[in-house]
Amino acid sequence: MKSLLNDLHNLVSGGSSADLAQAGDLIDDIKVELISFDSLPPLLYSTPNAAEERSLAASALEYGAIVAVMMEDMELFERNMNQLLPIYTSCPSIPLSSLKRKVQGLNLMFLLVENRLSDFHCVIEGYSPEDLADPQVDFPVKLERELMVGSYDKFHSAKAALPDTLYEFFMKSLLSTVRDNVADAMEVSYTTLKASDAQRMLMFDSVDEFKEFVGDTREDWLYQGCEICFRATEVNGKTDIPSMRLIGQTLSYATELERIV
Q1: What is the pLDDT, as a whole number, of residue 259?
Q2: Alpha-carbon distance 91 to 84, whole Å?
Q3: Beta-carbon contacts of residue 8 (< 8 Å; ≥ 6 apart)
Q4: Domains identified in the chain and CATH numbers
Q5: CA angle 250, 159, 147 (to 5 degrees)
Q6: In what residue span(s) does the PCI domain sit (predicted)?
Q7: DSSP state of 95
Q8: DSSP state of 194
Q9: How does DSSP classify residue 161?
Q10: Element (H, E) at 230
């Protein structure tokens, strides 16, 4: 098993598409081997090699989660985490690996992208102070707080302060979710809005990116000179809200309500 993990490490370090494909196959082979480990959940027998088997299993599944992110496969990432988390929970004496905190942070990013906020907070409650102090875990925790209070400007700047390049995959998906939420709030808060203001609120760096977003996802938005007209809002007879700050507050209240429920 140790030799397989060494091979897996080398393939993941390679990082090419061929290496990742081989790594995925190797992880599948390792998982087959893990079936024979009675020391793992749900049995958790105290076998003579229990400590070593649990550590090896956790390392293999941590690599599985990393490979899934590198392949940008959320379903594969979730499957690996569903197998890994019971080991973390049931076998707290496993030595800290070099990948654990990174995987913990990536899992929190995944839960944010999936908008599973109750699961997000349940996971945090199970983390130790040492876990939470690690920058890779602290990043998604702080990010969730900013999102809760509608500080989308800080969210935008967080893209330049990622603790690891692997977080980029989830940040892209999360940014898409945030943009959809902001766009929904704009529609019910305004009848018209300057296109430049809408672009800034949606955190687009260029006009072309903003126009592509509108064309792909907001077919009912109309350009009227330098302004965007929200047709659905006009039909419903809504009136403008004078303060842009209220948009952030509205999103924050809605998110907080969902968290409580």
Answers
A1: 55
A2: 11
A3: 23, 26, 27, 30, 60, 63
A4: 2-160 (1.25.40.990), 168-260 (1.25.40.990)
A5: 20
A6: 75-246
A7: P
A8: E
A9: G
A10: strand 227-230
